[in-house]
Amino acid sequence: MKRKLDKNDEPSSTPKPEKESNPPAAKEEPKEQLKEDLSFAELGLDPRLVQAIAKQNFEKPTLVQRKAIPLALQGQDVLCKAKTGSGKTAAYVLPLLSGILKRKATDSSPFTAGLILVPTRELADQVFKAIEEFSAFCAKDIQTAKLTDNVSDAVQRSLLSNVPDVVVSTPARAWHSANASGLSLDKLQYLVLDEADLVLSYGYDEDMENISRTVPKGVQTIMMSATLSSELDTLKGIFCRNPKLLDLNEDVGAEDEKLSQFYVKCGEEDKWLMGYLIFKLQLIKGKSLIFVSDIDRSYRLKLFFEQFGIRSCILNSELPINTRIKVIEEFNKGIYDIIIASDEKSEIFGDEGAEEDAKKAKDSKGKKGGPDEKEGGQPKKKRRTQKQDNEYGVSRGIDFRNLAAVVNFDLPTSATSYQHRIGRTARAGRTGMALSFVIPKDQHGKHKPTSIKSTENDEKVLAKIIRQQGKQKRTIEPYNFSKKEMEAFRYRMNDALRAVTTVAIREARTKELRQELLRSETLKRYFEENPAELSHLRHDGDLGRTMRQQAHLKHVPDYLLPKEGKNALTKDVGFVPFKKDDQKKRGHKRGKPSGRSFKVGGRKRDPLKTFKVRRK
């Protein structure tokens, strides 16, 4: 083999200089850098979708979008695990729409090509709206149907008669429509399971098996989840063909700094006192999501807040689906600041022993001595939970925008549920905080009017939470309240709790349901013509009209506050912002009311000095 000559026509001493100067490692680095700088246009999406993305001010694709979209566009099955708020919805919606648009360029025959299955109705509504936004510039070519609304079978069949390209539904509704010959899955090309690990936990196992026998072989499957669990292995065996696993542990160091986590160890009575002080004195500023253990608990807390003039909304599985969606929408628009949510599904299936509990609950249905009967064979009274929506869920999948704080008024029963709850805040690079109340073992049950059974193991759950967050390099710090300064407010808290009786809770719960039945879609035109009447549709109004009203509790007198002001109630908290005095002064100068009453003898506010008498 002849040796190469250099510029001076002499044999070169190094036969392969190019390969040595450019090792493989040096080539890989710029490639990886290029991937991180990819834009949506470079992912191979339809230009109309890229235009819609630009309209929503999305600058660059997230990690899950950079990894999942190219694989999905190639027709590969994808099983993706990514944290909440990472952009999973766009990661499967965009390639699905792009594939449908590409097919319609050559074949315009109508058939349902995509089926998106979600565990809750709230998430179905969110995905449906995301599809509408992404298909804004190709709305004529993409038709979408949502099957989670409370409509009759005849109305649903009429919706499906238009042969939508994409159907968004829960597994139960999808199988019901397919079984009733309203939904045709014979030519299905794309099957998406969002929050896939929750699908079986919510009791959709039989529906999923029926759907698997209906969909054609070779359908492309995309599964999105926040955790990897045994449920995913079951679904993977049913639907997927050698899927590509994406376990995306993003570099969350920067985001972790923006999420501050605190806990307070206190008795049950002190929990209510601190909740009153935090929201009445606005120690936490911004929109807050408060989690409680059950529905009655949510109404008790709302009525308790009403005693102090604190406005809040209720969100639970007993409310109609349209009401729940409306509350979330208006909360995201900034109309409400506080939502009290009871996430019953998270409490039941969030624990590590969820599979065993689910099997026990399933086996005990219809058997004597089961959960619906007492030991002596005497049947229990029917529970109100039978009227609850089984397709309800708040702690996962729902996008609460600009949420400043998550307050675990009742600690969840597992570290996994805690992780999903706090994932509602500090999303998309914003700051946020999570505050949890923990009842020590020796304090459990001492305040009987407000004690609940789930708080008995709070300390054990907290230990698991600390271990779990420690693995993710996150810290949970104590939220230090000054108990000495809180004592001045205790009698007001006790007055409010005494007014919130069991009868008042029952009447408030009934009143809320009655009001939501009256707020139907038939009133839409009336309120368009009479916009001043819209105040009657607010969801944060008072429910406790029938209970004892105590007007003095709605105002905090200055003598109750410590000399140092509201800041003296907490010590070494760090993240939690407080109102500053200079902000109040600036607001007063700009013409904003300071909230103080006029002082007799003052120049500008004394009505006697500004009163003028006109002569006839």
Automatic annotation (TrEMBL):
Region of interest (Disordered), residue spans: 1-35, 351-393, 572-616
Highest taxon of the lineage: Eukaryota
UniProt keyword Lipoprotein present: no
Segments of skewed composition (Basic and acidic residues): 356-378
Location(s) in or outside the cell: Nucleus
Main subcellular location: nucleus
Domain Helicase C-terminal: 258-487
Catalyzed reactions per annotation: ATP + H2O = ADP + phosphate + H(+)
Positions occupied by motif Q motif: 38-66
Domain DEAD-box RNA helicase Q per the UniProt entry, residue ranges: 38-66
Gene3D superfamilies on file: P-loop containing nucleotide triphosphate hydrolases
TM region positions: none
GO molecular function: ATP binding; hydrolase activity; RNA binding; RNA helicase activity
Biological process (GO), any one: ribosome biogenesis
Domain annotation Helicase ATP-binding: ranges: 69-246
A single GO cellular-component term on record: nucleus
UniProt KW keywords: ATP-binding, Helicase, Hydrolase, Nucleotide-binding, Nucleus, Ribosome biogenesis, RNA-binding
Documented EC number(s): 3.6.4.13
Keyword Cell membrane recorded: no
Signal peptide location: none
Family named by the database record: Belongs to the DEAD box helicase family. DDX56/DBP9 subfamily.
Chain's role: ATP-binding RNA helicase involved in the biogenesis of 60S ribosomal subunits and is required for the normal formation of 25S and 5.8S rRNAs.
Designated name of the protein: RNA helicase
